[in-house]
C-alpha cells in the first residue's frame, strides 16, 4: 500500500522546538559526544551499483548501522546518548557548574549517576542502548520487555547489567507499564516514543540518531534525491526526514516512510490525517518495528516533511535480508536483521511499479539512500531466515571487499 502525503501541514516548516532538536548544531553536539567515546567508529556507507543498475537508477547507498557501537543497531545512538545527557544535566544542576564527558568519571558525578535509575520499554535494541548508557555512567537500568521479545534479545540487554521486567501484551502495553512503574518509583523514563507532556527525552533520543546522517552525508559524493526509511513509532524516520529538510530546505530529497503491513501505525495515521492506534493482530517478523501507535512528535514532523507513506509485507522483509546477504556483481554482502532492510524493501516495491516511480520522480538519475537499521541482533533467527550464519555473510563481505 502506498499513500502520498495529503496532510494540511505538509510542506510547512517544522515547529521551532523540533527544528532545534534536529538542527545541524544539535547533530554536531551529538558527534562531539560520540568522538569522546573510545568505542566509537563511523559506520560504513555501502554503494550497491549492481542493484542500482537492476532498478534503473543512478545509485543505491546503504548506511550500515549493524556495526554501531557493538550493539548492532542504530538505536545505540539514541538511548545511550539520552542517558548520558540526562546524567550530565542532573550533575550540572546538583553541582552548579558545567560538566563534560571527562567529568563523568569524577567521584562526585559518579555518585549522582549511581542514584539515578533509567527505565524504558523495548522490542530489543532501544533497551540495549539505554542499558549500555546506564552502565557507562554508573547508573541503574530497568528494561520492560513484552512477550514478543526473543530470549536472545533479552539476554543481550541483561548482559549490560539491566534489570529485566516482563510485561504481558504488546510493545505499547510495555510502554504504559514502564511509564507507570517509573512514575511510582521516581525513576526516569527514557522512551523513544512520546505522549502528551512527555517530549523532551524522546527528543534527545531522536537527536542522537542525527549522527548517522552527518556521517552518511560526508561519505556521499552527492546528496541523495530519495530516502526510504522504516518506521516503528517513527523516531528514526522523523529524525532523518526532519534533519534532511533542515539541511537542504527546498532542495531536500523526497522522503518515504515504510511501515510493516501488520503494524502500520504511521501509514494509518497518514490515511486518517491524525495519529491513530492500530489494532494488534498477527505479530510481524519485523519485530523492531512492531509498534501500534506513533510517537506524537514523530508524527508532527513527518506530517510536514514526509512525501509518502507505504507498507511492506512479511515476505518483502525476508526477501531483502536474503538479497543483501547474496548480492550480485560487485555489491558487498550486508548482514541485515528482520527490520534492518525494510526501507530498502520499500524502494524495491516502488521501483517495480511504473506509476509509483512517476509519482516519486524515481528516474535513471536518482540516488537513493536507505539505512540498514540493524544487523543480526538475533543470530539464530537470522540464520533460519537467510540460510546462512551472520558470520558467513560478514566473511563473504570481507572477501568481496
Report what the structure shows.
The protein is α/β, with parallel strands linked by helices and 401 residues long. It has two domains: 2-73 and 206-400, Rossmann fold (3-Layer(aba) Sandwich); 79-191, 3-Layer(aba) Sandwich (Rossmann fold), CATH 3.40.50. Helices cover 46% and strands 14% of the residues. It is built from 17 helices and eleven strands. The protein has a seven-stranded mixed sheet, sandwiched between helices. Helix 13 (314-325) crosses helix 14. The longest helix has 20 residues, at 200-219. It is globular, with a radius of gyration of 20 Å. The two termini are 36 Å apart.
List the helices and strands and how they pair.
Blueprint: E1 2-4, H1 16-21, H2 24-35, E2 45-47, H3 49-55, E3 59-64, H4 79-95, H5 107-114, E4 117-122, H6 125-137, E5 140-146, H7 151-158, E6 163-167, H8 171-185, E7 188-189, H9 200-219, E8 226-230, H10 235-248, E9 254-260, H11 265-272, H12 296-305, E10 308-312, H13 314-325, H14 342-351, H15 354-360, E11 367-372, H16 379-386, H17 390-400
